[in-house]
Amino acid sequence: MARSKEFPGDPRRSADVVPYTPATSASDGSLYYMIAFVSSMGTLVFKNKWIGWIAVYSSLLSVFSDRASASGSGGSSRLSTVVLAFTSLVMAYMPELIALFRLFNQGGSGAPGSASTTAQ
């Protein structure tokens, strides 16, 4: 019977010890995370829709480029950045949404504020 091959880097033999090298961090995900967070705040402050779309794009890149091993520690913060980006984009479009809502509530009358009066 053949002896099984041992795992490389067996700590019982000093010649086979593999020195520790830290894994490279996913700096792209962190960069996208910071761009998404800063641009979300910029959208809320300046009400600029282009910055809001950059925030949404960066936050989605941040989530999708996140490594599987790093998702246990920062996964919820990255997902909260996506929620923040979409919320800031909705807040930037809020004046148009309110105007659209008011238009539909008036029943489609041509002039805003015009109400039909009935003869008594």
TrEMBL record:
GO biological process, alphabetically ordered: protein insertion into ER membrane
InterPro entries: ASTER
Gene Ontology MF term list: protein folding chaperone
GO cellular component: endoplasmic reticulum membrane
Coiled-coil stretches: none
Transmembrane segments: 82-104
Location within or outside the cell: Membrane
Primary location class: membrane
Keyword field: Membrane, Transmembrane, Transmembrane helix
Protein name: Protein Asterix
Species, as recorded: Coemansia thaxteri
